[in-house]
């Protein structure tokens, strides 16, 4: 077998492999010899089939199997022998001419194929002991914990019937019937519906008109459905609702005590506060870690400057660009709305893709030298986390990870990356700095927006490919919890709900 390098340009390599026809025929004959005693052909006793007949009947199929095996196995072996690592799966090319292929299968022509790939660039790891980072720490006040507890307690709030008129925050129990142009519409009717005034569950203007009603009142409410209401037959239409008030109830004052904790399934108020404090600490720690990680990556980025494999950069750019265009479509904005152009955005995000790939290679090398591994248990935990995010789709997700090449790497990559960051935190200089909650979150938002400067939409895409070394800041972890906007009109429920 001849292995001839035909291209060595930057990181690109191309190798021509030639296996003489006589060598291919020898391997084919060896395989036929191995099966001749087991082959059954009419007219011949087992083990007595003439080799020429065996070769005539099965030679080409055996040769085809041999060719497939060679192109599947030999490229990786050749790269290993050359001491090279391919950045992506090598591209294998062979003749597409049918006549030439027949000659190869008949052992009448040499088998030739080419291997095209990009090598992982070689670079020396640098001393990281001079890296200095600041870890921001927030002291959590008891008042903040109590505020969060009270917000949680809203779900356990109880109401009792009151005399007099309904006010903001009261719960109204009612029957209603909705009409558009005098005709009742599907989903516009309900009985014994409960609505807390000010909860913003119903379309704008509905709840405001309940202020002042009392048990026994009957009233007609007139509202206009939003222009973007999911049900097209109601969007932008004026509607009337015949209301019959059955009960008005006021909310009982919520106190942080053992009774509240019991309603929430906990043994004491102390335990409730402990859990809430832990959750707040986790949120702030997540933001602080992302900022700490960004400092490390920024300094590593300054330390290394080497060429990056084009295919890895292209894959990472496509991932980012797809997310950017999705964000634009969802927000209804254009690049012009973000004070940029598509061309400028492409240039900036290509730089970001190069940075991510370069840092990914650096972190991979650091992790390899530190003998960092991802355990099967950690992979399983990551998979279970994926399953929890998509209830009801567990089978599809499991099938995806079982049957999709490289899918498991998407689980392993972020785990490996975080373990490398943990390793680096033991090697570099880390200084703790006390900051306020506002400073932690404000700085986090500002730094997150500066990642790609002002190239395009400000919402940054998280790296999803295994080559990506950087993740978008988890802004949502620190953001104040707000109800998600409803995207679909409720089926068989309250059509007045927005």
UniProtKB/TrEMBL annotation:
Top EC class of this enzyme: isomerase
Keyword terms of this UniProt record: Cell cycle, Cell division, Chaperone, Cytoplasm, Isomerase, Rotamase
PROSITE patterns, A to Z: FKBP_PPIASE
Localisation per UniProt entry: Cytoplasm
Segments forming domain PPIase FKBP-type: 169-270
Presence of keyword Cell division: yes
Gene3D superfamilies (UniProt xref): 3.10.50.40, Trigger factor ribosome-binding domain (3.30.70.1050), Trigger factor, C-terminal domain (1.10.3120.10)
Keyword Glycoprotein assigned: no
Biased composition (Basic residues): 485-498
Annotated spans, Disordered: 437-498
EC number: 5.2.1.8
Pfam families from the UniProt entry: FKBP_C (PF00254), Trigger_C (PF05698), Trigger_N (PF05697)
Catalytic activity: [protein]-peptidylproline (omega=180) = [protein]-peptidylproline (omega=0)
Endpoints of the signal sequence: none
Record InterPro entries: PPIase_dom_sf, PPIase_FKBP_dom, Trig_fac, Trigger_fac_C, Trigger_fac_C_sf, Trigger_fac_ribosome-bd_bac, Trigger_fac_ribosome-bd_sf, Trigger_fact/SurA_dom_sf
Domain notes: Consists of 3 domains; the N-terminus binds the ribosome, the middle domain has PPIase activity, while the C-terminus has intrinsic chaperone activity on its own.
Family: Belongs to the FKBP-type PPIase family. Tig subfamily.
Functional summary from the UniProt entry: Involved in protein export. Acts as a chaperone by maintaining the newly synthesized protein in an open conformation. Functions as a peptidyl-prolyl cis-trans isomerase.
HAMAP family to which the protein is assigned, alphabetical: Trigger_factor_Tig
The protein, known as: Trigger factor
Native organism taxonomy: Bacteria, Pseudomonadati, Pseudomonadota, Alphaproteobacteria, Hyphomicrobiales
